[in-house]
């Protein structure tokens, strides 16, 4: 009797399937219909990618630990700098500027967002290429041209910012060198002239400037 129990159970299952065949077929076609309609209604998302080279040869890099010379770079100093560049590229400051330039406030994707910039940042990803000095800037958007334009603009702003920083650093370095030279000159003058001598007065004014 026990040997026939599995067959009995199987026949019960087949009987249930046959009696509910119509319901199962209807459910199957309804599921296929919903998935098909959903795939047609779902708008594709496009990704634009820009490759950025994080230059290792910059003479001086400002890190959280101070100014570090990268002529013969220290691994940890460069790693910190590399991570900082990733954060700068995806910073709210750059994102806000691009968001406003492209007038995305009126876009239906951000219109109802509590924090529009935060929502916009979700479409931007920055990831390193392993064992290289490259960063991939990815921007997702339903409009492929807009995705490419946003990615390119973020890259442009980042490059402009770095060029501006390098220029300022060079000016600061020149001023520092000039200041040190004036200080050395003052040390020499103090051995010859008194404080109220015209040359001493003029030199101190230059140092103050």
Question: What's the short version?
Answer:
This protein is of the alpha+beta class and 209 residues long.
Which secondary structure elements does this structure contain, and how are they paired or packed?
Elements: H1 5-19, H2 21-41, E1 46-53, E2 60-63, E3 66-69, H3 75-89, H4 92-101, H5 116-121, E4 124-128, E5 134-141, H6 144-189, H7 198-208
Antiparallel strand pairs: 1-5, 2-3, 4-5
Q: Could you name the key traits of this structure?
A:
single chain, 209 residues, alpha+beta, three-stranded antiparallel sheet, 7 helices, 5 strands, 59% helix, 14% strand, elongated
Structural commentary:
- This protein has 209 residues and is of the alpha+beta class.
- The chain contains seven helices and five strands, in the order H-H-E-E-E-H-H-H-E-E-H-H.
- A three-stranded antiparallel beta sheet has the order 1-5-4, covered by helices on one side.
- Helix 6 (144-189) runs antiparallel to helix 7.
- The N and C termini lie far apart (108 Å).
- Residues 58-71 have low confidence and may be disordered.
Q: What does the radius of gyration come to?
A: 33 Å
Class of secondary structure makeup: alpha+beta
- The H-and-E topology, N to C, reads as HHEEEHHHEEHH
Let me know the largest β-sheet: 3 strands, antiparallel
DSSP helix fraction: 55-70%
> How big a fraction of the residues is strand?
5-15%
Mean pLDDT: 77
Main sheet: strand order: 1-5-4
Number of helices: 7
**Care to count the β-strands?**
5
Give the CA-based shape. Answer: elongated
Report low-confidence residues grouped into runs of 5 or more. 58-71
Distance between the termini: 108 Å
